[in-house]
Amino acid sequence: MNKDYYNTLGVDKNASQDEIKKAFRKKAHEYHPDKASGDESKFKEVNEAYQTLGNSQKKSQYDQFGSTFEQAQAGGGFANGFSGFSNGFSGGGVKVDFDDLGEMFGGIGDIFGFSGGSKSRRSQRGGDIQVALTIDFEEAVFGVEKEISLQKHIVCDHCNGNLAEPGTKIETCKTCNGTGRVTKIQRTILGNMQMQAVCDACGGEGKTYAQKCKKCHGKGIILDDSKIKIKIPAGIDNNETIRVSGHGEAGEGGATAGDLYIKVQVRESNKFQRDDYDIKSSVFISFTQAAMGDNINVETIDGDVKLKIPAGTQSSTIFKLRGKGINRLRSSGRGDHFMEIKVKIPDSLNRKQKQLLKELNL
Ligand SMILES: [Zn+2]
Ligand SMILES: [Zn+2]
Fold first, then answer.
1. Domains along the chain?
2. Distance in Å, CA 122 to ligand 2 centroid
3. Ligand 1 mean position, distance from CA 220 (Å)
4. Which of 25, 147, 176, 231 could anchor a disulfide with 199, C-beta 3.0 to 4.6 Å?
5. Whose CA is closest to 250, among 145, 165, 332, 129?
6. Whether the predicted model's global pTM rises above the 0.85 cut
7. How far is the CA of 182 from the centre of ligand 2 (A)?
């Protein structure tokens, strides 16, 4: 599942944000689906790569964890990629494709008196799925791979998502010549606008079917039980959400699949408390150790380490074990471990001990 975003954009790992942006614009123009040289899947790949590399925080995360986690965290989706370059939308006489703009500019259609109903079936992206996943404290600290079972729509295995009963004919729609769209002139407050509307004859698919698939009834998707392996990155905290791109519901009629969101719940540890990327815990030492000093073993997430207790250590003193905390998810390095010393005062003394303590007169 790891993708080489640097390769997709044709930039080097040390490329500056400016260079990355330039490379993205060039590739996005080249592959834009409306162009003769267009290639929708490459266009999406370029967009996906830019979502990550175009953001220095996500870039460093990607450098650290690869695309699995990055895909999970990248905000928005395909449509957001459009913000990276001018789409030429402006009033008056321009060609406006509401299939594409509908999602980006929610509700703008209303200004011109069009309803949002012009979206073709083909552009109905599959739904997103949200699941909760509970993991142990240690699994969150060190990262873990988990398998998630869920029921969701997948591409129909009878027609392979092409909607036709196998062996029956699929023909190009005669009304729109297979484009799925027809051009209409619409009068608006900004003057005449030439707009693309969905072909009524084929519902925007550009194809007509002699017989639709019997298993999915021409939807191209079926409900099925799926298992997905998820890599949880080391350092994830309670209530953080991982987004796994394209693992939501499959879209009808071959549309893009939705995303899978995994909300991670982390069980508490009975040894350690977490505070951001730091760990807190406490250890009891004896009155004698506190007064005279000692070298003790204390437990960290890396196992036992030695801690020097200086003579005269007071109860509630906190020692910082640098770098013994949790992996920082969005930058490098680790947090610290704060170890609180608690001095145990003996709760029962025998006669001799009492006598000796009195003589010490502390
Ligand atoms: Zn089917
Ligand atoms: Zn048509």
1. 1-86 (1.10.287.110), 88-119+170-209 (no CATH), 126-160+221-267 (2.60.260.20), 273-360 (2.60.260.20)
2. 12
3. 5
4. 176
5. 129
6. no
7. 8
User: Whole-number mean pLDDT of the chain?
Assistant: 82
Give residue 66's pLDDT: 65
Dist. CA 253 → ligand 2 center (Å): 14
- Give me the helices (H) in 105-234, please: 108-111, 137-142
Q: Residue 203's closest CA among 221, 184, 176, 222?
A: 176
Other beta carbons within 10 Å of 312:
10
Task: Find where tokens 């123009």 sit.
Answer: 29
Instruction: Give the number of whichever ligand sits closest to the CA of residue 214.
Output: 1
Measured from the alpha carbon of residue 222, the closest ligand is 1
Please tell me the distance from the alpha carbon of residue 65 to that of residue 252, in angstroms, as a whole number: 32
Residue 214 CA to ligand 2 center (angstroms) comes to: 22
What is the whole-number distance in angstroms between the Cα of residue 325 and the centre of ligand 1?
A: 51
As given in the structure block, the two tokens for residue 331 are 């930058």
Q: How far is the CA of 170 from the centre of ligand 1 (A)?
A: 13
Tokens of 261: 């969101």
What does the pLDDT look like over 201-228, one tens digit per residue? 888 888 899 999 999 998 899 999 999 9
- Nearest ligand by distance to the CA of 220: 1
Other beta carbons less than 10 A from residue 89's beta carbon:
15
d(CA 207, ligand 2 centre) in Å: 6
Backbone phi, psi, residue 318, to 5°: -115, 125
What does residue 49 show for φ and ψ, rounded to 5 degrees? -65, -40
User: Tokens representing 341?
Assistant: 């010393």
**Measured in angstroms, how far is the CA atom of residue 209 from the centroid of ligand 2?**
12
Residue list, CB under 5 A from ion ligand 2: 173, 175-176, 199, 201-202
Cα dist from 48 to 4, 78, 238, 360, whole Å: 11, 7, 27, 73
